[in-house]
Each structure stands twice: as structure tokens, then as C-alpha cells.
Amino acid sequence: MRNIDVCLSPELIHQYELKGKIVVVVDILRATSCMVSGLATGVAAIKPLADVDICKGLKQEGYFTAGERNGSKVEGFDMGNSPFEYMEPHLKGQKVAVTTTNGTLAIEKSKTADQIVIGAFLNLTAVAKYIQQQDKDVVVVCAAWKGKVNLEDSLFAGALVERLAASHQPECDVPRMMVKLYQIEKNDLFTFVKESSHARRLNKLDVFKDIEFCVQEDTFDIVPVLRDGHLVLAG
Amino acid sequence: MRNIDVCLSPELIHQYELKGKIVVVVDILRATSCMVSGLATGVAAIKPLADVDICKGLKQEGYFTAGERNGSKVEGFDMGNSPFEYMEPHLKGQKVAVTTTNGTLAIEKSKTADQIVIGAFLNLTAVAKYIQQQDKDVVVVCAAWKGKVNLEDSLFAGALVERLAASHQPECDVPRMMVKLYQIEKNDLFTFVKESSHARRLNKLDVFKDIEFCVQEDTFDIVPVLRDGHLVLAG
Questions:
Q1: In B179-233, where do the E strands start and end?
Q2: CATH, domain range A2-226
């Protein structure tokens, strides 16, 4: 058996040894759901960046730019942070440069890992299968909300712990707690998640449809991985 | 309605505004369970200290000294970190100076709060009643294990959220998550908690009896509060 651990906030990441491990970064609402949706429907590559200005500058190099802060699109960017924007036909074969409040920072902070994989409910089973093809420990890094532990990313962590039960055992208490929580809520994730702090925050911004989309499991059978600074399809 | 929030680790405490609020510090295995047990059975006052040497020095001022690091008693101290040691008859009317790996640090980091209250399963209902006599927001600060989120402190947080449901609403996702977890596990806390990382760590140190004692609810009807650097009975 290999181990699985769960880091509930990027602010706790120093507690985890990532070297030699696969890190699954998750930001259900909505960064990693967007990345999965885009790459599954034809986007060629996505470059995650923590800095807004650097991200914006990549427009000159032919990237479409996506920028979100506090749930809203940043001025001067081509796209905000809705998975539907990432699935637009004109993005097929194109590259996207993206910066978000929490998700891109979580990727940045996970860079000592052996591999960074992008997880969402949308590609949950695909991520689990991808991990099981390898013989490595796993740490799920939840993007959280400005460091604060959130419901939807924690639930995803629990879901992945469940899917990997045959190959990976919980390394400490957090994966055990989250798999329990996921198991009691999994039949109606939408009801539970739409009451989360972040969903309520986003609802004010009229993105209810996004939330409903992001809690669907296994819509896509793809796995984005970070290679040379870009997220691309694994394999 | 007032609000209740839950800080899962002292390393996340900067995310919480404590000013004007009641902080309930919890370290089920075993610091706050010891404090509650001692004060409930006759210890006059307990002085929590983050530093081992300062704590040890208080022996000269007539304190009994209790020191624990990594689950074991520190050499040169009168007591370790078992609730049974705190209930010894010779401690009646005496003062105890205590330092532990996590619990005393959590108290130290909560000092901007309006009031610091010591919580454990042993005095759960008493703490809830004490809070409901006041009109203040509450933050539960989990001592965790060297910063890592743990099961037993998180479950206590969920238990207090449940007990305060009529007066305090969850401020963000964490209290909502933990109350769910507590509600599915509350009928057999011992089974769940004895599989926790920390319980397994302590079991090696032969303190199984302590764990069984510490997960009992409402053994004592007292509330320790911090006043002038000492924990004493409220009221």
C-alpha cells in the first residue's frame, strides 16, 4: 500500500513532504474545474501563473488570458473563471494563460512535488486511475479560499481517498475525516456545496450554473499534468 | 444569532479575528482534558506556559510542574500529561504550572481574544451553557498536533457547534463540516478517536486508559477560564 494525505490549505503546505510524490491540486470553484473542462474540449495547453501582470503580458505571445480575483473577471483579460468560457469552440488548439485567487497559487506552492496533477469532480475517476498506474504516494493540495479551509475542495479530497482505497491508505487524520464526510454527502453534493461559503459568495456573482456543473463527477476522462510550466493532457 | 467559527490548527490562527470574541481552546489528547479534570477535582489554578524552562522554574514558587513533549513526560517535572495525574488528592488547593507540545501554545496564540475558555469532551455541555449566558461570537481553536489538523480536536469543535445550534450559526465551511462529522460519529467516539494518528502515537506510550477517559462527554460541570495568566473556575 502507498499513502495518501490531504493538505487542507496552501498555508499548511510546509507540513507536507512533497518530494517524490504526486500532488493533486484541487480548486473546485472554479480554477481546476475550468482547467479540466478546457483541456478536455480542445485547449492545447494552459499556463498557470500566480501574478496578474505576468499573466496579462502573455497575450502578446499569442495566449488567450484568463484572470480572476475574488470571484470576478479581472479587467483586460479575455476570460474570467467559468468552465463554460474554457469550452468555447474558438479555444480549440489554443493556449491559455491563467491566474486565479487561489488555484494558481496552490500549483505554485506544490512545485517540489514529483508530479502535479489537476483534479476536479469532473475528472475524479480519471485522476484515480492515472495515480493507480504509478507506484507513488499522493498528497491532495486543496486551494481553499485565501488560505481558509473550504468545503468543496475538502470533499474532493475525500472522494479521491475513497477512489484510491485499494492502493493508498490515509497517512493521517485529515484523509480519514474527509472520506467520511464525502461518503455521507456524495449522493447530493450539489445541495451541500451550494451552501458553502464560496458558493454563496459566487452566487452573488450569478454563477449558479457554474457550481452545478463543477460538482458533477466524471464528465471528462482526462488528466491534466504540469509539464515545463504548462498544463497538458497526460499520456 | 451569534457566529461560531473553527480554527483547525494554530498555524491558521492569523485568519481569524479573535478580538471581542470568546475563544474555546481544545486539546483533547490530552492538555485541555487534563486542565478540566484537575480544576474539577480541586486544583486551585493552572498556569499554562509555552516554554519548558520557564515552566520548570515555577517549582521554586510552589507550583507543581507538569511537562509533556511528544506525548511523554519531560524529565524533572512532577507530572506528565495524564488526566489521572491531575486528579490526585495531594493536588487539592494547589497550583500547577504546565507546558505541553500543542495545548499551551494554542492558548498563547489566542491571547487577543476577549476571553479564553478551556474545552474538552469532559466539560462540553458546561462550556456550551457558559457561552450561551453571554452575547458573543465564538472561535474554537484546535491545538492540533504540531500544526497538523487532527481528528479529536476537530470532532470536539463539531460537538460544540451542535450544542450551540440555537444561539450560534456557523461562520464558514469548517464548523459546518465538523458538526456533520461529529453527528455521524458521536455514538461511538471512542472507536473513531482511538484510530486517530495521535491516539495511535499515544498508544505506543501506553495511555489507552487516558484516551478512553478523554472522549467521555460531560463528566464534569465546570468551565476553566484564563484570568491573569492562570486557568481558574469561571463564576
A1: 224-227, 230-233
A2: 3.90.1560.10
